[in-house]
Request: fold
Amino acid sequence: MDGQKNNILEAERLKRVNERTRQVDNIMSDIIRRINCDLRNAQREGSHHIVVELPVKLEIIHMTLADAQIEIYGNVINFLEEKGYKVAFRANPAAVKISWRNDDEERRRKENFERIMRCKKKF
Reply:
């Protein structure tokens, strides 16, 4: 038995799966590149938010589908929040709503909209 216990794989070795890291990095790069393209288009169009669908079928070595989704979706949300965006997540189908309007702008817009609706009723 003593000889067999030395043959067991160490947990640290299993945690360091370079192929998995490379796959996660590639998936993240593709998603961020697509988001960046959509952000540029939205800026040109004068929008204040975009909705981007996220890939559902994620095949990452040594990870279940659920773990892969948690890893990727969490990384995307974290990345966007670090860049200063407001992020909302929808699970089915997987998507993120990314907005960049600040709270004051949002409040002013809401007040103006309510003002317009109030006056519209009087006409």
